């Protein structure tokens, strides 16, 4: 898949760049490109060379650069080794390095090639009536060796070779070119043959900086640079280390003592330093978490149990990274550091609950610990999956940022899955182990201490919550203040108090200055200005070394590969590479030094321009290595228009507007400045009369200027051929008029001076033609700077200046801007914004979509767990409140100049925080539901949940802060740390207030969920006792159809879309459960047993008040007592014990399928219907259970304490488990009351005692509806 096609065409050639979609295989893509070119070769004009296809990818970027430069050992201020010798030495070193495993492509930059130069003199050629073409043909024809064949003689075969190669300058000098006056003319008669470096076409120089640790000072000495890449998939640290080790061994042997080797790039060491630093931070974060848990539990044993989970999870996560194909790099290590703060949450919850249950039971036994783990199993698993649901969608971000950030969601989700496994397997085992099991003395002491803390928390929550519960105006005021503060925090973006950008600049070990002189500038002039820049930069105290590359490109990095810096080979182009000391030894960041350098060089060039010592068209830009995916430039305006003249004028005027923009730096455009070049215009009439073709003239002139090698000499095995180059001396070439004396051989055998065949004229060079996706375009580019160093702000400022100037394009229209794609056509002028903005938009767009998907997944998960559609909305309410901490925290960092831009990593932290903060809400709501099931009123249950769950919630929050604190000042992932730490602190505090208030407001739904999930054997209180004052009465005395409260606006907006998807999912799930019930094998009914569905219900006595609910509870609660009074119960205690739970589970499953009816309302007759449907099967004699209960009031008696009897041993069993009775119950009872009725009966316990009130969080049998 091709994303974009770019092209740049100029006189004599062009470049077409094909950009593929991220993730395309390079090999397959190259095959497709070559196949497409081959199938269209017939369309290429005659005389055009076949296209050359070269692939450039991330693995082509050199990982190690070695700069060889000459020392001055004899002290004569002249380097001992010239650049030509350095180039030959560099090739020998490169050949030795390539022998190492996993080394990729390598090349040498700088130095002059060795060649055999034949300098012909036009005057001598004219005197001997010989042309330069004749000299070239003589050399070519005498530099041939041929395998002619073979002969056989005396039983042997001998090969016959004819001819010989030229091997030295003497061989060339002895060649006879022709005859003049019957005298042989040799090459040495008309030319001077020398062997040595070619004429300088490029220049590479090395300078030591003020921070250099070398004993020798280098002041622009000749140098060459060896660049070596690594193979795809290999370990960059290992490859770089092996290369440097090999070079050190070559010193003193292959590399002489008068040649120094400087490592000017070592990505292996950079990666190793970053990985080592992050591993250290990993241990620091683990230590912070250990201290936090130690402070929370105030004992070493629980802290050790919790912290031991961290290495287990991390090692298993690293193993999963290996399975998924991820490497241990900077981003993957950040994913592990991010996970540390949350992977201990499950272990903390498990340990805290085991300790609490041991304290309640008064013994540290295994059974209690297992049951304690079971208690927190469902909410812990749900909370873990909410975090995974928040992380996983981020793995589908498109563009170049997708693969860059992919390890965070992948490894974060893997760590969360492994952490919940470790919490349920390793944590209980370690907690119950002999060495780490706490004593009861410690538990009692801790329990007393926690009881006091809990009492203080309870008093605090009562002081905070009760006034807002009792006085609705206070609650409304709180909500008004909270949402008002939320809107005010969001306004920080509008007022530019917090900047938004893709990624902040990293603290890199290098940066570069890219210099562009006016087109046509000679190499010495370019090198002179680059030398001035290097001298100015090297005096900075934190600059280690500087390299100058004039007329050639420095070894490209990832940024240079995207910007095509490796194509900068013109003599008016140069680059200055600045190498800094290690970031640990620097007081300033690389960005600060780059800003200083830009200011320094701007002042210097402006001064030189005023003095007219350099041309006015000099441009330069300070290029820093991007922290993320590189782009063509930070700000790019692609200019579209009806024709080239209009586009050029718009681009020129837009460049001037860019230069006036506050946030833009290094403004430039891709238009070529007009400049002159020499063209020899052939007088074809004269040439034809003299018998000379245009092709002959072109060939002779090309050889005279040194642009056409005529062969090579075979001297030794070398890495580069020694070409034979014919040219006129530099003095002749410097003055174009003297080339007119060059003789050209005609068909008649005479030579004609070049001036008689035409003339030299100066012509203006044609502009470069740019296309993008086959549409004509011009580029205006700039870098960003200042306080708001993000592209979008500079773009807005350009838009404002266009409006202020009332800019009208040359074709008479207002310049329209397109942000998300090109204009539909090019009939009118327009600009398309590109560059870093495109990556920023695509990344934040995909992350926003991932956030929406995460919210939907979290909502579905919570609906699945609670079986209600409003409770999940309540649980997710604190998600937007995280911005109350995130945005102000970014503002504080940004205001004090410590970074703080809201970046893509900030967005990642916010999305991850959504799953984490929902975890806290689930703990509060789940505990409130348990308390309601135990008979606590809603208000009291909510306060108790805050009192009990505040401690683990706070531990979770501070663990996340401790884990993220180690990356607060990392340049790239600072935004994630700020989002996680500030967001979790503020939202945790607000969650402890918002969730309780929301639970009170959604009391009806809370009670419904509690009733629907009530475990068998637990009797819930009536609605009047559970609901806040007046709510239950109004609910029970209302019409059968209940009217739902109006949801908040944000629930209405998001809930519409979410509910459609969730209802479809929930409906399908209900159908599956119903089919399971239908196909389940039913037990056979005993002959003569009355069928519940045939019983005619007595007339209803009314609705409302406590009567309906009381009758429902009473009708079912009499099952166990009535059965206990009969002698039949003792024969089958286990069956009696299990059947009520089975009935409750079956009824609960079927009742959840009819959840739509429950939402419509509860009929007032439902309690009587339930009671009447159950009553016929309550006694063995067949009389209604209510009458039997009145005649035989029997207290609840434990099953084992019942007297044994032999009468009707099986009646109770078959009456209780009768499927028809269950079906009658579920058909007759609608809404929540059915769930209350079916699950309210007390089941006999295994211990033989009466059913006791459930302890906090214990659910018994739990089936999801």
UniProtKB/TrEMBL annotation:
Enumerate composition-biased segments (Low complexity): 1193-1202
Which positions, given as ranges, span the membrane? 278-297, 304-325, 331-355, 376-396, 408-431, 477-497, 847-866, 873-896, 908-929, 950-969, 975-999, 1057-1079
Report the GO molecular function annotations: xenobiotic transmembrane transporter activity
Basic residues composition bias: which ranges? 1203-1218, 1252-1265
- Name the Gene3D superfamilies on file: Multidrug efflux transporter AcrB pore domain, Multidrug efflux transporter AcrB pore domain like, Multidrug efflux transporter AcrB TolC docking domain, DN and DC subdomains, Multidrug efflux transporter AcrB transmembrane domain
A GO cellular-component term linked to this record: plasma membrane
What segment(s) does the record annotate as region Disordered? 1086-1109, 1177-1219, 1238-1265
Q: Which keywords fit this entry according to its UniProt record?
A: Membrane, Transmembrane, Transmembrane helix
State the protein's name. Multidrug efflux pump subunit AcrB
Q: Which organism is it from?
A: endosymbiont of Ridgeia piscesae
């Amino acid at each position: 898949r091709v994303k974009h096609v770019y092209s740049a065409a100029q006189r004599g050639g062009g470049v077409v760049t094909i950009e593929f979609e991220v993730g395309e295989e390079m090999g397959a893509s190259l095959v497709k490109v070559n196949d497409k070119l081959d199938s269209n070769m017939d369309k290429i004009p005659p005389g055009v060379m076949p296209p050359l296809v070269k692939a450039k990818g991330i693995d082509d970027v050199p990982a190690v650069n070695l700069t060889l430069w000459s020392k001055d050992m004899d002290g004569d201020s002249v380097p001992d080794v010239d650049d030509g010798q350095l180039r030959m030495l560099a090739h020998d070193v490169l050949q030795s390095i390539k022998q190492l495993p996993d080394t990729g492509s390598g090349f040498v930059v700088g130095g002059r090639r060795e060649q055999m130069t034949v300098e012909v003199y036009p005057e001598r050629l004219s005197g001997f009536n010989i042309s330069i073409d004749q000299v070239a043909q003589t050399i070519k024809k005498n530099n041939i060796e041929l395998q002619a064949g073979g002969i056989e003689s005396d039983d042997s075969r001998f090969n016959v070779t004819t001819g010989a190669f030229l091997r030295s300058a003497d061989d060339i000098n002895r060649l006879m070119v022709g005859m003049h006056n019957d005298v042989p003319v040799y090459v040495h008669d008309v030319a001077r043959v020398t062997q040595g470096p070619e004429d300088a076409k490029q220049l590479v120089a090395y300078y030591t900086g003020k921070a250099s640790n070398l004993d020798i000072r280098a002041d622009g000495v000749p140098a060459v640079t060896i660049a070596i890449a690594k193979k795809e998939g290999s370990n960059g640290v290992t490859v770089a280390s092996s290369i440097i080790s090999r070079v050190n061994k070559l010193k003193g042997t292959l590399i002489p003592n008068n040649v120094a080797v400087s490592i000017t790039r070592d990505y292996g060491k950079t990666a190793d330093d970053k990985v080592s630093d992050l591993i250290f931070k990993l241990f620091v974060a683990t230590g912070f978490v250990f201290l936090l848990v130690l402070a929370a539990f105030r004992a070493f044993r629980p802290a050790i149990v919790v912290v031991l989970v961290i290495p287990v999870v991390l090692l298993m996560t690293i193993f999963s990274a290996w399975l998924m194909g991820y490497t241990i790099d900077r981003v993957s290590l950040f994913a592990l550091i991010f996970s540390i703060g949350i992977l201990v949450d499950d272990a903390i919850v498990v340990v805290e609950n085991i300790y609490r249950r041991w304290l309640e039971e008064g013994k540290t036994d295994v059974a209690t610990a297992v049951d304690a783990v079971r208690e927190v199993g469902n909410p812990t698993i749900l909370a873990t999956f909410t975090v995974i649901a928040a992380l996983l969608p981020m793995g589908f971000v498109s563009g170049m940022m997708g693969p860059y950030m992919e390890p965070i969601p992948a490894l974060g989700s893997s760590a969360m899955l492994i952490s919940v496994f470790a919490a349920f397997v390793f944590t209980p085992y370690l907690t119950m182990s002999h060495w780490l099991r706490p004593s009861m003395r410690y538990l009692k002491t801790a329990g007393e201490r926690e009881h006091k803390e809990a009492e203080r928390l309870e008093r605090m929550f009562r002081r905070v919550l009760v006034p807002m519960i009792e006085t609705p105006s206070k609650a409304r005021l709180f909500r008004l203040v909270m949402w008002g503060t939320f809107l005010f925090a969001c306004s920080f973006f509008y007022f530019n108090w917090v900047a938004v950008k893709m990624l902040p600049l990293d603290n890199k070990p290098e940066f570069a200055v890219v210099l562009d002189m006016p087109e046509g500038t000679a190499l010495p002039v370019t090198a002179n200005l680059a030398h001035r820049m290097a001298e100015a930069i090297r005096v900075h105290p934190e600059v280690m070394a500087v390299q100058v590359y004039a007329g050639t490109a420095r070894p490209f990095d990832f940024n240079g590969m995207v910007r095509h810096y490796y194509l900068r080979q013109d003599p008016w182009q140069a680059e200055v590479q600045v190498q800094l000391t290690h970031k640990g030894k620097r007081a300033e960041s690389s960005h600060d030094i780059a800003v200083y350098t830009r200011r320094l060089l701007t002042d210097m060039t402006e001064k030189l321009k005023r003095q007219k010592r350099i041309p006015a068209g000099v441009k330069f830009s300070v290029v820093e290595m991007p922290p993320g995916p590189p782009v063509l430039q930070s700000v790019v305006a692609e200019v579209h228009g009806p024709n080239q003249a209009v586009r050029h004028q718009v681009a020129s005027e837009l460049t001037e507007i860019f230069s006036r923009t506050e946030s833009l730096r290094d403004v430039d455009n891709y238009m070529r400045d007009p400049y002159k070049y020499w063209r020899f215009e052939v007088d074809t009439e004269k040439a034809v009369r003299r018998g000379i073709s245009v092709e002959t003239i072109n060939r002779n002139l090309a050889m005279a200027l040194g642009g056409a090698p005529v062969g090579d000499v075979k001297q030794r095995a070398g890495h580069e051929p020694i070409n034979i180059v014919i040219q006129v001396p530099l003095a002749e070439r410097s003055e174009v008029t003297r080339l007119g004396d060059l003789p050209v051989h005609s068909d008649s055998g005479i030579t004609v001076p070049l001036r008689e065949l035409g003339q030299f004229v100066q012509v203006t060079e044609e502009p470069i033609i740019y296309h993008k996706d086959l549409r004509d375009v011009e580029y205006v580019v700039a870098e960003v700077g200042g306080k708001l160093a993000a592209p979008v702000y500079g773009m807005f400022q350009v838009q404002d200046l266009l409006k202020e100037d009332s800019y009208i394009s040359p074709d008479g229209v207002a310049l329209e801007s397109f942000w998300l794609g090109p204009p539909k056509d090019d009939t009118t002028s327009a600009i398309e914004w590109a560059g870093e903005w495109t990556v920023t938009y695509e990344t934040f767009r995909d992350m926003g979509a991932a956030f929406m998907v995460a919210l939907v997944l979290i909502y579905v998960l919570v609906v699945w767990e609670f079986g209600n559609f409003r409770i999940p909305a309540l649980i997710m309410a604190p998600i937007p409140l995280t911005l109350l901490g995130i945005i102000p925290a970014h503002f504080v960092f940004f205001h004090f100049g410590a970074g703080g831009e809201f970046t893509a990593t900030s967005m990642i932290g916010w999305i991850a925080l959504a799953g984490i903060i929902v975890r806290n809400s689930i703990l509060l709501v789940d505990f409130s539901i348990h308390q309601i099931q135990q008979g606590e009123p809603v208000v009291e249950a909510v306060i108790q949940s805050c009192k009990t769950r505040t401690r683990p919630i706070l531990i979770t929050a501070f663990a996340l802060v401790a884990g993220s604190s180690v990356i607060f000042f990392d340049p790239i992932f600072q935004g994630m740390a700020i989002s996680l730490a500030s967001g979790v602190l503020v939202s945790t505090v607000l969650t402890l207030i918002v969730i309780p208030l929301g639970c009170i407001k959604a009391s009806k739904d809370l009670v419904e969920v509690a009733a629907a999930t009530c475990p068998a054997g637990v009797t819930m209180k009536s609605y009047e006792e559970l609901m806040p004052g007046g709510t239950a009465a109004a609910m029970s005395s209302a019409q059968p159809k209940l009217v739902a409260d109006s949801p908040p606006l944000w629930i209405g907006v998001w809930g519409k879309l979410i509910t459609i998807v969730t209802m479809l999912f929930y409906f399908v799930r209900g159908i599956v459960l119903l089919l399971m019930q239908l196909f389940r094998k039913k037990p056979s009914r005993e002959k003569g047993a009355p069928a519940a569905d045939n019983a005619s219900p007595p007339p209803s006595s009314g609705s409302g008040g406590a009567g309906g609910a009381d009758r429902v509870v009473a009708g079912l609660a009499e099952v166990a007592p009535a059965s206990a009074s009969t002698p039949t119960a003792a024969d089958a205690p286990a069956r009696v014990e299990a059947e009520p739970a089975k009935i409750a589970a079956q009824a609960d499953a079927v009742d959840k399928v009819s959840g739509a009816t429950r939402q419509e309302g509860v009929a007032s007759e439902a309690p009587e219907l339930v009671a009447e449907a159950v009553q016929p099967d309550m006694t063995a004699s067949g009389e209604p259970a209510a009458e039997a209960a009145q005649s035989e009031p029997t207290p609840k008696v434990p099953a084992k304490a019942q007297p044994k009897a032999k009468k009707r041993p099986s009646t109770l069993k078959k009456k209780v488990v009768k499927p028809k009775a269950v079906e009658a119950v579920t058909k007759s009872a609608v809404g929540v009351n059915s769930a209350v009725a079916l699950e309210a009966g007390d089941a006999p316990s295994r211990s033989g005692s009466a059913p006791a009130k459930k302890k906090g969080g214990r659910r018994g049998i739990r089936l999801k509806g």
